[in-house]
Amino acid sequence: MTVHALFASPDDVAARLAAGGYLTDESIATTVFLAQALGKPLLVEGPAGVGKTELAKAVARACEAELIRLQCYEGLDEARALYEFNYKKQLLAIQAAPSDRGWEETHDDIFSEDFLLERPLLAAIRRTGPTVLLIDEADKADVEMEGMLLEVLSDFQVTIPELGTVAATRRPFVLITSNAARELSEALKRRCLYLHLDYPAADRERDIVLAQVPGIEAELAEQLVRTVGTLRALEVKKAPSIAETVDWARTLLALGLDELDEAAVARTLGVVLKHVSDQERARKELGLKG
């Protein structure tokens, strides 16, 4: 199995991700570089909305790689994560088979490549081009899923009883995200490099807004980021994400506003706070009218 270098150095990571609109810090750039250099999965943990999923997308853009995403959820099983056979197609093939045909021959036919349905993990392993495999919100999957992930991520191969072992010819860059809704196993963590993401410092979030919202004035971006920081400090049910900060900036531009005063905050609060109780608390704490 070949391990291809995607980045030359941490500085290369930072520059190429920034060119695609994702601003990193030294810790992020270094960890991403080491994950690809060592051929290890990268486990990225942190609260919702801090850019974990977007990091995988940014790496894929920077490397012109195919992004394959496995969205985890309770009840996710091997058939949805690895592979399954097209049972309807198999049934039709059995019905269409000549009556004098032996079962073993029919069995070999219906459990062939033509009837195989790839799911994200198998698809990522079989690709020969640059690939980023995003295993998103792993903490939402059942504990049993981790055992399957361990097997796949340890050897980067999948055994299909009917077809044999499929081994990766080119190791994908694997990024696993978790919101820490439950603790992931130590066995999984041992196989990964670890990166914790939190909401960025105000100056970096301002730079993110300036990079992603052409035309916004630096002073307005400063006001916006300070206000978002205040809202996050209120311990609301759903703190505003970085993406929602960017959306708020775009909203202000769309409305032709060049200042984030109390009236502007009151009019547009629904862009960043998505629970009525959060909005009520913000209005009370910030002294907003309406």
TrEMBL record:
Query: Gene3D superfamilies from the xrefs?
Result: P-loop containing nucleotide triphosphate hydrolases
Query: AAA+ ATPase domain: from which residue to which, for each copy?
Result: 38-203
Could you tell me which InterPro entries the record lists for this protein? AAA+_ATPase, ATPase_AAA_core, CbbQ/NirQ/NorQ/GpvN, P-loop_NTPase
Name the CDD domains on file: AAA (cd00009)
Q: SMART domains in the record, alphabetically? A: AAA
Q: Which SUPFAM superfamilies match?
A: P-loop containing nucleoside triphosphate hydrolases (SSF52540)
Which domain of life does the protein's organism represent? Bacteria
Q: Which PANTHER family match?
A: MAGNESIUM-CHELATASE SUBUNIT CHLD (PTHR42759:SF1), MOXR FAMILY PROTEIN (PTHR42759)
Q: What is this protein called?
A: MoxR family ATPase
Species this chain originates from: Actinomadura harenae
